[in-house]
């Protein structure tokens, strides 16, 4: 189950939307970002994308929820840090559910 809200505060939400809009323009639009981020089928089409915060045990994660003809997917806007032994690693928080 996904728990989503618009953001932790109005100011954070506004700044996040500005940053996301800049990224979308720079990278060629939501369709292109979706295809670069996830494995897509040749006939798969992006139907809608939503800016949102995904609620996790570590707190809200700002990102984009994608609804395509074949899946529901989420990817964070920025990489998140996590520990592997003594080292800090960085990775985008993403997941998908096919056959939606």
Automatic annotation (TrEMBL):
It comes from the Eukaryota. Residues 32-94 form the GRAM domain. PANTHER family: GEM-LIKE PROTEIN 2. Belongs to the GEM family. This is GRAM domain-containing protein. It comes from Colocasia esculenta (Wild taro).
């Amino acid at each position: 189950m996904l728990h989503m809200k618009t953001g932790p505060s109005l100011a954070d939400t506004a700044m996040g939307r500005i940053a996301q809009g800049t990224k979308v323009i720079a990278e060629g639009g939501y369709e292109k970002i979706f295809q670069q981020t996830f494995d897509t089928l040749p006939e798969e089409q992006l139907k809608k994308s939503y800016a949102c915060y995904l609620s996790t045990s570590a707190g809200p994660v700002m990102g984009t929820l994608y609804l395509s003809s074949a899946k529901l997917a989420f990817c964070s806007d920025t990489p998140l840090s996590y520990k592997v032994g003594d080292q800090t690693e960085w990775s985008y928080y993403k997941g998908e559910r096919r056959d939606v």
